[in-house]
Amino acid sequence: MKKTGKRNHYAIVTFFPERMTGTTLFIFEDGRYFTDDELEEYILWYMTHQKLFIDNIKLRVTLEECEEVKNKDAYIGWNYCSWGWFKHLRTTGAFYHNSKKIKEDIVTPSSTH
Fold first, then answer.
1. 98: left (phi > 0), else alpha (psi -120 to 50), else beta?
2. In what order do the strands lie in the sheet with 9-19?
3. Strand, coil or helix: what is 18?
4. CB atoms closer than 10 angstroms to residue 13
5. CA 90, CA 111: separation in Å to the nearest integer?
6. Which of 32, 36, 79, 108 has the fewest Cβ atoms within 10 Å of its own Cβ atom?
7. Are strands 9-19 and 53-61 parallel, antiparallel or unpaired?
8. Can you tell me the distance from the alpha carbon of 31 to that of 6, in angstroms, rounded to the nearest whole number?
9. Rounded to two decimals, what is the model's pTM?
10. What's the pLDDT tens digit per position in 2-57?
11. For residues 69 and 12, is the Cβ–Cβ distance under 8 A?
12. 93: buried, middle or exposed (CB in 10 Å: 19+, 13-18, 0-12)?
């Protein structure tokens, strides 16, 4: 995993319950291809499979900001996602449950009757 590069985008995620730490970092290779919704969708999918609940997501932060956060806590780790891996997951339907759940949580005037 190459952390540096103009093509990479980064995210800082805080979560609970804590496991040695309550923060993790994400690196998205070729991040310019990801929409913000896709970044969040992948993070939600990843964290759900770790049985963790997201407290806050900061998208498209700088590598320097990530390294500053990591230097404060030795237990913070990097999670890597390439554009190719994301496309593979999307075509296999890995995010179907996430999208369905998000759509169910949206309240519309017709759903309040």
1. alpha
2. 53-61, 9-19, 21-28, 78-81
3. strand
4. 22
5. 28
6. 108
7. antiparallel
8. 9
9. 0.81
10. 566 678 999 999 999 998 999 999 999 999 999 999 999 999 999 999 999 999 99
11. yes
12. exposed
Crossing angle of the two packed helices 96-105 and 36-49, in degrees rounded to 10:
110
Tally Cβ neighbours within 10 Å of residue 77.
12
Contact 43, 26 (CB under 8 A): yes
| Residue range 59-107, pLDDT digits in tens | 999 999 999 999 999 999 999 999 999 999 999 988 876 654 544 444 4
Which residue shows structure tokens 């390294």? 67
Closest CA to 25 of 74, 95, 80, 72: 80
Which residues lie closer than 8 Å to 105 by C-beta, 6 or more apart?
A: none
What is the pLDDT at residue 106? 41
* Contact criterion met (CB below 8 Å) for 47 and 13: yes
Structure tokens at 53: 């609940």
Q: Which residue has the higher pLDDT, 33 or 110?
A: 33
